């Protein structure tokens, strides 16, 4: 039995040494894991910061482009609105000019017709007056006035 107790003590000491060795090795592994986790956290923090920075830059660029695009849209809307207003104004002006032109054309056409009526009347009057003058023209003997003064003979042919 003493042998057996000695043997168990020996085994117990061996187990204690293995246990201490394994505990020390476990502590080393735990420290290495803590260091790796810390490095990983540091790497992740750096990467997260880098990604956050890149995302912030990307968002600012997109927002700047969006603002520029919105300003361009607003400028185009304003230009289009001005063009529509100008077109409407020109259309109204053109309509006014057409109306005035038609009124003037009608006015001048009326005057032209009145003038032609008067011309016709005047032409008829002239023809009638000429016939009446021919009827009422006194006959003057050509030897009394002389050939140079007779309007019926034309220009002076004696010279």
UniProtKB/TrEMBL annotation:
Biased amino acid composition, Basic and acidic residues: 113-137
Keywords noted in UniProt: Coiled coil
Domain of life, per lineage: Eukaryota
Protein name: Uncharacterized protein
Entry coiled-coil feature ranges: 19-79
Region Disordered, residue ranges: 113-159
């Amino acid at each position: 039995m003493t042998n057996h107790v000695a043997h168990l003590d020996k085994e117990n000491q061996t187990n204690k040494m293995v246990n201490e060795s394994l505990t020390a090795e476990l502590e080393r592994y735990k420290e290495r894991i803590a260091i790796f986790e810390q490095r990983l956290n540091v790497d992740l923090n750096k990467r997260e910061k880098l990604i956050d920075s890149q995302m912030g830059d990307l968002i600012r660029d997109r927002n700047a482009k969006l603002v520029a695009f919105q300003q361009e849209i607003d400028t185009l809307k304003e230009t289009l609105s001005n063009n529509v207003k100008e077109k409407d104004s020109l259309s109204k002006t053109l309509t006014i000019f057409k109306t005035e032109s038609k009124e003037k054309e009608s006015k001048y056409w009326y005057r032209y017709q009145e003038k032609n009526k008067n011309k016709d009347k005047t032409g008829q009057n002239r023809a009638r007056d000429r016939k009446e003058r021919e009827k009422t023209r006194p006959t003057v003997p050509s030897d009394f006035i002389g050939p140079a003064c007779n309007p019926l003979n034309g220009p002076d042919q004696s010279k």
